[in-house]
Every structure is written in C-alpha cells, then in structure tokens.
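Typical record is below.
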Amino acid sequence: MAVTVMVTLLFLMPLFQYTPNVVLGAIIVTAVVGLIDVPTAYSIWKIDKFDFVVMLCAFLGVIFISVQEGLAIAVGISIFKLLLQVTRPKTVMLGNIPGTNIYRNYNQYKEAVRIPSFLNLSIEAPINFANMTYLTERQKLGQMIKKRVKPE
C-alpha cells in the first residue's frame, strides 16, 4: 500500500495538476465518508458519553478547522477529563453483605446492609492534594446523609 502511494505521488501527481479543485474535494469527501464508523461511535456513546463528546469534537474540529487544531481540541478535552477524574474520584457508600465480612456498594447490591453508627466509604482513587477538598466535601455530605437516612 505504501509503495502504491509513493509511486502515485512521484509519477502520477503531474496528471492531477490540472484537475479542478471541486473534483479533488469530491475525492477527499468520498475517502472521509469511508472512514466514518457509526456503529463504533454508537458503542462509545453507550460506554462513555464524555469520550463520545471528545470524539465528536475531534471529528468536527478536523473537518471544519484543520487536522492539527482538531486533534489539539481533542487532546485538550481529554486532559480536562483526566483532571476531572483525578480531582473528583468516584466514592461509594459500602454496606455489609449479611452473614459475611464482605462490604459492597450499598446502591448496587440490594442485599447490602448499612452498619449502624458507621459511614463506610470506598474511594476509588489515590488520595492526594488534588482531590482532598472534594473528598472532604463528600465526607460532610455522607455525614448529612447518615443523619437523614436511618440504617436498616
């Protein structure tokens, strides 16, 4: 494939010199339409909405601005997503599975039971200076929930 492209660029490019820009644009649009994979985009939408937004911004940026700026937009949004994940880690309340020493997500496991007078939180990220304020706020929110919700 690479050899074919190289031969085309070296020997056949002079033949395309007098081709109108409209025809060259039509060739490019035809090639781009073949690159669009709607089922994969739909599966990305189902898995992670934010990744779909990044993909859509990259696609629109490349189509309407330029390749470099479209990819720069996508990289910038991805870095923003990474910073959000680092500074706002996922926290879940844990409940005990009756008859065991196993603790699981209270909202995900219906058989999980909260322990009276305790708030068990699972923080699914390392604790560091970037997320300390957020975790402190979540702890205060959890204490407010604990006061409002009576354990079963």
About this structure: The helical segments are 2-12, 21-35, 38-47, 49-64, 67-87, 132-148.
